[in-house]
Design a protein that fits this description.
Helicase, Ruva Protein, domain 3, six-stranded parallel beta sheet, alpha/beta, 28 helices, Rossmann fold, elongated, 4 domains
């Protein structure tokens, strides 16, 4: 047996075929069969296309038998001479045998220049071929083949004369994609806790709707936005056939190169001569306007990237879906919009705020990374929970630290826990620093204030303090921090940030070296504050500094740009710091 190009697609992946094409080579190889095969391959479907003319012997065996057994969807293309091929009839009989009483296997017949009555043997077309087979192979085998033909003919199929070749192929690929993905359960095991998030995005996508939709997945760095975008793309891309593109890390790439990749992935054409961004914009807008596309823009950080890659909904055909992941939705706010801007632009964008991983999922993710199982041994249970608590349930941190601890003894776990209480993991810090470095100086100062002093504190008091220090309304700065997923305002009007973002701010103020920089620092550690007050006792006793009007707030000015929390200051004057 020698198979066509389909046999080499599987390579060494260990995965079987999903679709088996059964057809008469001389009738359809250069037309229907070849075009359908290539369209299925472009849709990411593993399909087997047999070359019957190169096969020897009388039985279905080897790779051909394996391909039929592995496949879940069978597409027999009935053409004028289909029944004259003993191999086509052998394949069909095996397909019918496997499909009887098995809802997981589906037959999608295509009638190519023949009618259903021909396959039902109500006309002379196939009856003549079967009479010849009966004399050559015997009555029993011919009877089996007749039964298979009549059985498949009772299945509702598609006829070329009702659709035309192009439409027939598109309808078939769409149906195959839909059938495969509704049956698939092979979600990668490592995607812990992603199902609920995937379900929520699927509701927003509503793939049955014909409008064009932009879905924005936003949240802090390391929370799993890219992972979710990749999972959604993998799940729904077959329904868009070949018109799909995932642009990863858009923030770090040149726009022209991204435009080239987008055009290449969607249209499978080379755009090496693309020289200007505006040229790429024109090409995307012109070529995509009637195409149903799926595009993911991962890690966007400004509006220009959207406008130069996916522009407006009217750039695309009905049913198109654009998914955007970002840490920062501030760039989507138009000047003059209020705090309810998400609602005001919901006509174009649907927003999904990526939630923090719950304790159960965080525990499972960490254990799978660190131990290769969902639950740790009893003697590791307590320290696993302590590590998860320190890491704050951030998927990035759980992945990084869990991988570091893989195969390590409990003592190493304990050492790591002690270190993490004082020093952030460097890989996690680098990822989170991207957002901090994107802030303007005053926004950085407010962020550090919240990390050091205002975490879980009343927002109103803090805002009054910042207004007095910066001498303008800092409400806009606070909104930017919210839009950049660095802080949140709780229902009881308190300032909140993820534990890892809080630790990032404190590590910036108090680096690993332990040096305390007097100018512009924040003394959030009682030990450090006590040390500074000891040094500056002479300043308190000999120099009169103006106390800020908001001294009753949680912090006030005691020396040049040095803020100390009041309750810690009282502690310092009453006793030695606790260690």
């Amino acid at each position: 047996m020698a198979a066509g190009t389909g046999s080499s697609r599987d390579g060494g992946s260990g995965r079987g075929y999903e679709v088996f094409l059964s057809f008469r080579g001389p009738d359809t190889r250069l037309t229907m069969a070849d075009c359908l095969y290539n369209d299925l391959i472009h849709a990411g479907i593993r399909v087997f296309k047999d070359n019957e003319e190169l096969r020897f012997g009388e039985e279905i065996e080897g790779g051909l038998l394996q391909a039929i057994n592995d496949s879940r969807i069978y597409i027999p293309i009935f053409s004028e001479n289909y029944a004259s091929s003993k191999w086509c009839l052998r394949e069909l009989a095996r397909i019918v045998e496997l499909s009887r009483g098995n809802d997981e296997r589906v037959i999608l017949p295509i009638f190519y220049e023949v009618d259903v009555d021909d396959v039902k043997l109500k006309t002379k077309l196939y009856r003549k071929a079967l009479r010849k087979h009966k004399s050559e192979y015997g009555k029993d085998l011919a009877k089996k083949w007749k039964k298979a033909l009549r059985e498949v003919a009772r299945i509702r199929g598609r006829n070329l004369k009702d659709h035309g070749l192009y439409e027939l192929m598109n309808l078939t690929v769409k149906e195959v994609s839909s059938l495969l993905w509704t049956r698939r359960t092979d979600v990668p095991d490592h995607l812990v806790g992603i199902k609920d998030r995937t379900d929520e995005i699927m509701k927003r996508l509503d793939l049955e709707a014909f409008d064009v939709r932009f879905i924005v997945i936003y949240g802090m760095g390391g929370i799993g936005k890219t992972t979710l975008g990749e999972a959604i793309f993998r799940q729904i891309s077959p329904q868009f056939q070949r018109h799909c593109c995932f642009l990863k890390d858009v923030r770090t790439h040149d726009i022209i190169n991204l435009q080239k990749k987008l055009l290449s992935d969607i249209f499978h054409l080379s755009c090496t001569k693309l020289s200007f961004i505006d040229e790429g914009v024109d090409m995307i807008q012109t070529r995509f306007h009637d195409k149903k596309v799926l595009i993911v823009l991962d890690d966007i950080d400004n509006r220009d990237q959207i406008m130069r890659l996916v522009g407006e909904p009217n750039w695309f055909g009905g049913g198109s879906r654009i998914i955007i992941t970002t840490r920062n939705i501030e760039f989507l706010v138009k000047e003059g919009e209020d705090d309810n801007f998400l609602a005001s632009i919901s006509g174009q964008f649907s927003f999904y705020n990526m939630p923090v991983m719950n304790l159960h999922d965080a525990f499972q993710l960490f254990c799978e990374r660190a131990l290769g199982c969902a639950e740790p041994p009893t003697d590791y249970m307590d320290i696993a929970y302590k590590l998860i608590n320190v890491l704050g349930g951030l998927p990035l941190a759980l992945n990084v630290v869990g991988s570091i601890l893989r195969g390590k003894c409990r003592r190493t776990w304990e050492d790591t826990l002690r270190k993490l209480k004082n020093v952030m993991n460097e890989d996690v810090k680098k990822k989170l620093m991207i957002s901090y470095e994107a802030l303007e100086p005053n926004q950085q100062q407010i962020y550090l204030d919240i990390a050091c002093f205002c975490f879980n504190k009343e927002k109103t008091i803090a805002v009054k303090y910042w207004d007095a220090i910066f001498r303008y309304s800092t409400k806009i700065e606070l909104n930017i921090l919210i839009h950049m997923s660095l802080i949140k305002i709780s229902n009881d009007n308190k300032l909140w940030m993820h534990d890892q973002l809080r630790d990032l701010g404190r590590s910036i103020v108090h680096p690993e070296s332990g040096e305390i920089h007097m100018k512009g620092t924040r003394l959030w550690s009682p030990e450090d504050a006590f040390h500074v007050v000891q040094i500056e006792t002479v300043i308190f006793t000999s120099t009169c500094f103006p106390v800020h009007p908001l001294a009753s707030s949680p912090f006030y000015l005691i020396s040049s740009q040095t803020y100390i929390c009041t309750h810690w200051l009282l502690l310092l004057f009453s006793r030695e710091p606790e260690t």
